[in-house]
Design goal:
The protein is mainly α. It is built from twelve helices and no strands. The protein has one domain.
Length: 191
């Protein structure tokens, strides 16, 4: 993986980019909540899917993850609990069968603990074509989160983070700062 601290210096953030401009508004919705109910799961999932080129479908499953179970998991995530692989799989099964969608939902619920994961970030981190079966892997997502936590501990992170916040125009979590550099500097794979 390329050095995100080096890449940050040349990364340009466009303040009029809707991806940048809408982010704090979505974040504010989730920040106002201390716990979640089934309605919050539905509304929150639809909000983050409004940020994506995919239409949301919810697949509540009484045996694995219904809306109440999802609300409980999001509440635990908001309280700082790191969801395990089974919980991530269950939430992904509910939210479009998508690790990407769940990563975005979890990021807005708990931005200090969860980072956004998508095909561009996958391509940056793994250096491979972002085929759906690869990107939709809880294992790869968990490895990515661990890698980000290690980067936050590296010397120079505070300077990197301050620079990104200045470029963006508002404060973001450490994980968001790292993810955004990866997203904006991801390799492009052509068919």
């Amino acid at each position: 993986m390329r050095d995100v601290f080096e890449l940050e210096r040349g990364t340009e953030i466009l303040s009029d980019d809707p991806y940048i401009g809408t982010y704090p508004h979505l974040l504010a919705f989730f920040e106002r909540k201390s716990s979640f109910d089934a309605s919050d799961v539905v509304c929150g999932a639809h909000m983050v899917y409004g940020w994506m080129p995919t239409i949301l479908e919810l697949y509540p499953d009484a045996d694995r993850c219904d809306l109440a179970a999802a609300a409980a998991m999001l509440t635990r995530a908001k309280q700082g609990h790191r969801l395990d692989a089974w919980e991530l799989e269950a939430l992904a099964g509910l939210v479009n069968n998508s690790v990407v969608g769940v990563s975005k939902l979890l990021h807005f619920v708990a931005p200090q603990t969860y980072a956004i994961w998508d095909s561009k970030v996958f391509a940056f981190v793994r250096g491979e074509r972002p085929h759906h079966y690869r990107v939709n892997s809880v294992h790869f997502y968990q490895s990515y989160l661990e890698e980000l936590r290690n980067l936050v501990e590296r010397p120079g992170f505070e300077q990197f983070h301050a620079s990104m916040n200045k470029k963006i125009g508002y404060a973001v979590s450490p994980l968001r700062a790292l993810e955004l550099v990866m997203f904006l500097n991801a390799p492009i794979y052509r068919a």
